[in-house]
Structure formats: structure tokens, C-alpha cells
TrEMBL record:
UniProtKB keywords: ATP-binding, Kinase, Nucleotide biosynthesis, Nucleotide-binding, Transferase
Organism: Jimgerdemannia flammicorona
Gene Ontology molecular function terms on file: ATP binding; dTMP kinase activity; nucleoside diphosphate kinase activity
Family, similarity comment: Belongs to the thymidylate kinase family.
Xref: InterPro entries: P-loop_NTPase (IPR027417), Thymidylate_kin-like_dom (IPR039430), Thymidylate_kin_CS (IPR018095), Thymidylate_kinase (IPR018094)
Biological process annotations from GO: dTDP biosynthetic process; dTTP biosynthetic process; dUDP biosynthetic process
Gene Ontology cellular component terms for the protein in this record: cytosol; mitochondrion; nucleus
Domain Thymidylate kinase-like: 14-46, 65-212
Involved pathway(s): Pyrimidine metabolism; dTTP biosynthesis
Protein's name according to its UniProt entry: Thymidylate kinase
Length: 235
């Protein structure tokens, strides 16, 4: 289905491996766009919010602009229990929950775009496929539940070698936070590249990366205005 509408907001996805600086850049980007008078909102998948330092935070000033699909949804709570190792969930089943967590946000996402608000998302279906396929699930199977989600206008992949990521405080105790697994995830991310992707070197300083992110985003916002919102991811 295609939604007809002019002057819409752009859908920008920030992807990358752990510690690449996604959350840091997402927050700086939304602040910067709002400073420039551009309507912008931050979404995050899975629907939970984490500070740049890595700790999960319930109440934070930044939360005012971080929409959560949510920890308060029952799906968000199951995902949170899984990631913190409080609960084991079968690989296919958790994959479907991550996807459902995106689908439950689509109505809200579309209404923001139609209202002219640019939406920045911290991880999307690419993370969904990369992490599940890295566990050994079939890549084609992994893509199916997310087929038909709103297609991003731009995917910025923040690329940081796993060795560099490790230096940024080391990996924590959550599921997936090991070096070998992160390398597999990166390889699968590379297989998912398409025309909407732009790969940025994430080894540079926070401010330098921010400048590059902003440049790409400003161009995309301009170019997307007259384009239709497409609900055809991986179709
Ligand atoms: P992600 O969301 O991709 O896991 P974060 O934004 O949470 O990454 O950043 C991970 C850690 O690295 C944080 O401690 C953050 O302050 C730090 N960091 C983020 N960007 C940079 C950068 N460009 N250079 C050095 N350290 C960074
Ligand atoms: N993750 C994230 C998945 O396994 N599937 C998904 O669909 C998504 C969106 O959840 F380890 C994983 C990736 C990462 C964890 O971490 C969420 P952050 O630091 O909160 O983004
Ligand atoms: Mg993050």
C-alpha cells in the first residue's frame, strides 16, 4: 500500500553494531534538528530506552522525545526480560516478538511522518535480521515478518571495527555482547545493504560523526518531502 502525501517527514534509521555510537548520534541528531526548527522525533527498537553510557534508565529528561513502543507494552516487557537474561525464549519466537514490537509502532510512525515530522529510529528490521541470522536462523525466514514495514528513506550504518567497539568500555553482560557474535552480526549487516544505505566510518569523534550524519539527514529530508511514504520494506 502506498500513502499519498506531500511535505511529509523523512524516516531515518541509524544502524550499526554495539557501541558504534548509535544512541549518542540519535539523541544529538534529534536535538539538532529541533534547534533548526525541523520537527523530529526519536524512536527506538526494541522499545526501551538506554542512556549513552549503557545503563537503562526509566526516567530521564531525554525521555520526553523518545517514543517507546514500549517497555510498557507486553511485547516490550518480554523482550527486555530476554535481553537481560531473566528469561529464555526460543530463537524463532523471540525473533517474531522483535518484529511485532516494530509492527505495533507502525500506526504511530505513519501518523508522525504524515504530520511532517522526521522520525529517527535507533535500530530497525536490519538489526532484527542480523542478530537472529547470526544465531543460525535462515536469513530468508528472518526477513519475512518485517516485509511491508515502512521503508526508510535513509539507513545510516555506523561502522566500527569490533576491536574498537571493545575499547569503548568493553561488552556488557547482556545477551549477544561477545566479540565473536558481534563479528557475525556485522557480516550479516553487510549482506543487507541496499540503495537506501550509507555507511559512515564511526571511528571519528562524536562531533565529527554528528556533522556527517547531519549532512546526510538534511539532504534526505529535502529529497523525501515530495515522495510517497512506502510500506514495502523487502517486498
Ligand atoms: P550504541 O548505541 O551504538 O551501542 P552508544 O551511543 O551507546 O553506542 O555509545 C557507546 C559508548 O561509546 C558510550 O560510552 C559513548 O559515550 C561512547 N561513544 C559514542 N560515540 C563515540 C565516538 N565517536 N568516539 C568515542 N566514543 C564514543
Ligand atoms: N536486537 C534488536 C535484536 O536481537 N533484534 C531486533 O529486532 C532488534 C531491534 O537487541 F543486542 C538486539 C540488538 C541488541 C539488543 O540493544 C538491543 P540496544 O543497545 O538497546 O539497542
Ligand atoms: Mg544504543
Amino acid at each position: 500500500r502506498i500513502l499519498n502525501n506531500l511535505g511529509r517527514g523523512a524516516l531515518i534509521v541509524i544502524e550499526g553494531c554495539d557501541r558504534a555510537g548509535k544512541s549518542t548520534q540519535c539523541m544529538k541528531l534529534v536535538d539538532r534538528l529541533e534547534d533548526q526548527g525541523i520537527k523530529a522525533r526519536l524512536l527506538k527498537f526494541p522499545g526501551m530506552f538506554r542512556s549513552p553510557s549503557g545503563s537503562r534508565i526509566g526516567q530521564h529528561p531525554d525521555m520526553s522525545f523518545a517514543y517507546q513502543p514500549d517497555r510498557s507494552t507486553s511485547i516490550g516487557q518480554m523482550i527486555n526480560a530476554y535481553l537481560t537474561n531473566a528469561k529464555d525464549i526460543e530463537d524463532h519466537a523471540i525473533h517474531l516478538l522483535f518484529s511485532a514490537n516494530r509492527w505495533e509502532a507502525m500506526t504511530h510512525l505513519k501518523s508522525l511522518l504524515i504530520a511532517g515530522t522526521t522520525v529517527i529510529i535507533d535500530r530497525y528490521a536490519y538489526s532484527g535480521v542480523a542478530f537472529s541470522a547470526a544465531k543460525g536462523l535462515d536469513l530468508k525466514w528472518c526477513k519475512q515478518p518485517d516485509v511491508g514495514l515502512v521503508t526508510p528513506d535513509l539507513v545510516l550504518f555506523l561502522d566500527l571495527p569490533v576491536e574498537e567497539a571493545e575499547k569503548r568500555g568493553g561488552f556488557g553482560g547482556e545477551r549477544y555482547e561477545t566479540k565473536a557474535f558481534q563479528k557475525k552480526v556485522r557480516d550479516i549487516f553487510m549482506d543487507l545493504r541496499d540503495r537506501s544505505w550509507k555507511i559512515l566510518d564511526a571511528r571519528v569523534s562524536i562531533d565529527e560523526l554528528h556533522a556527517r550524519v547531519l549532512e546526510e539527514v538534511m539532504r534526505t529530508i529535502e529529497n523525501s518531502k515530495a515522495l510517497q511514504i512506502r510500506e514495502d520494506l523487502w517486498k
